# Entry
Amino acid sequence: MYPAAFEYHAPTSVKDALKLLAKLKDDAKLLAGGHSLVPMMKLRLAQPGHLIDLRKVKGLSGIKEEKAALVIGAMTTHWAIESSKAAKAKLPVLAEVAGIIGDPAVRNKGTLGGSVAHADPAADWPAAMLALGAEMVCEGPKGKRTVKADDWFVGLMTTAAKGNEILTAIRVPVWPAGSGAAYMKFPHPASRFAVVGVCAAVTLDKQGVCTRAGVAVTGAGTRAVRARGVEAALTGKKLDAAAIEAAAQKAADGVDVQADLQGSVEYKAHLCRVFARRAISEAVKRAGG
Ligand SMILES: Cc1cc2nc3c(=O)[nH]c(=O)nc-3n(C[C@H](O)[C@H](O)[C@H](O)COP(=O)(O)OP(=O)(O)OC[C@H]3O[C@@H](n4cnc5c(N)ncnc54)[C@H](O)[C@@H]3O)c2cc1C
# Structure
């Protein structure tokens, strides 16, 4: 399949890209790695009259280390995160998530910003962004604003970004000493998208009691969500196998689990619980528990 005809634009600054967005409005789409948008265009599920390619826009790629966060440019590829020394040292779960996305071709082209802007219900990054408490930095005609991951993923392939905004960066807080995080998924055998994926992060105090937990589920419903019941069940407890199992049992609570070609509601809810147990157990181990 060929996409419908479109006009191609390659601005070199955020300012110029925003000007184009303001002029072309809904008839334009931003292009990042193209690994979600181009297939949709080929299937004619998207038929933008204009593509605004962000690849030549300066300042949108790379990982900056702040005192308590990594700030990742929206155009940073999955591979750049998978191989980043900063990510491996400060938030190794980011390299872990990136490393199990699709295949090398997808990881070399696809971007973190494209993934969180696309908000595919089976994408891996949304679970990690929610569990870790990331913030999305957007730029629009009125300047910059920051949106918490909790407020970002609003529905099926829908985010809090406005049509006249560009997602420029993602700020991921670095968790304190005594923390660990893990991402586990049941991958679709062909695409590697998450049939169900769970990201878990915990902080343990010196007695091994969980003082903070972030857990999020992707793949099961129409959007990735925080598993708040699991987080509440973990917090304040010593995380032995029984406590982890009890908390993981709540992993599908509050998820609008959808039956699809990959499985029934019951099966996918079961996967939520299984992968929550695995991700939490690994996060606790990595936190030193
Ligand atoms: C074969 C295959 C396997 C895959 N497997 C997986 C997998 O296992 N796990 C997974 O999570 N993903 C998977 N993906 C998706 C892949 O990760 C994509 O790279 C990602 O979803 C979209 O990123 P992109 O940079 O390609 O964005 P694009 O396709 O270029 O854009 C996607 C959408 O986001 C918008 N957009 C892009 N950048 C911005 C921005 N800066 N600001 C605002 N809007 C923006 C675009 O307008 C478009 O609507 C797979 C894709 C393919 C083709």
Remarks:
- Residues 63-173 form a domain with the Uridine Diphospho-n-acetylenolpyruvylglucosamine Reductase; domain 3 fold (CATH 3.30.465.10).
- The chain has three domains: 7-53, 63-173, 179-286.
